[in-house]
Amino acid sequence: MEEHFVKVGEVSSIAFYPIKSCRGISIAEANCSEYGVDLDRQWAILDGEGRVVTQCSKESLALIVPTVDGNQLKVEAPGMQPLFLPLGIDNSRPQIDIDLLGLSGSAVRVGKDADDWFSKYMGKPHTLVTFSKSLCKPRYLLDHKKHGKKPLVSDKDKIAFANGCPYLLISENSLNEVNKQCTKFECSMQRFRPNIVVSGCEAFSEDAWKCLKIGSAEFRCLHRCGRCILLNVDPETGIRDKQEPLQTLRSFRLVSKDDDPSYGNSPILGRNLGIEVCGSIKVGDDVFASM
What we know:
The chain is mainly β and 291 residues long.
């Protein structure tokens, strides 16, 4: 049956996060591929055991600031000289296996200079890896134990270093409602790390959306985004609060076990999306949704 789409809002901001769990970059328009916004989470940091590092355990990642500088990615952090990474990938480098949240794939090591930079900043040996669409093995959402069987998940849904989906969407009024409930401090949208922010819709209305049309791109709403302790890290200071805003979210955004037991104690905010038709989107685009 053909989907019926209605206008639900418009795009108010777009962002991508070149290095997983580091600072994001706001942009006015984006090309959307099956892996996400171009350059989104194309790099990741591994610890000495080969595990992907995030702010859940290393809050100081919040202070690593990447910017696109011509054909390079400039990386800055407190007390460090800038690091410059080529946007192109040397496909002659050997692949290494990675496992992130139970989804296995592969990556390419960037090189010694990058490893030395991140090791110095982190205070222990670390490795920077990147993802090549033409060389590396992607991670497939169908293999995800919790969300792989959700109705709209398909074999199109593949990712590099994102946790479980290529895109995250949140509405402005959903954040506004969280801030009404969280009395300790006001949360910025950056704390929740969306790719697409939508204005003009009611709080949490994105929970009910099924498919989306934005610009020339089309998306499937795969599942609601379960949130973790990373939310408690202030993106500006890298300091973690012991409770908020995760505690507030748990007070009114938990999913009942009867509805979906896969979320457990993780409250939900935002929708994880998969691409149906690749295309471009921009700030100001109308957002059309089917329910």
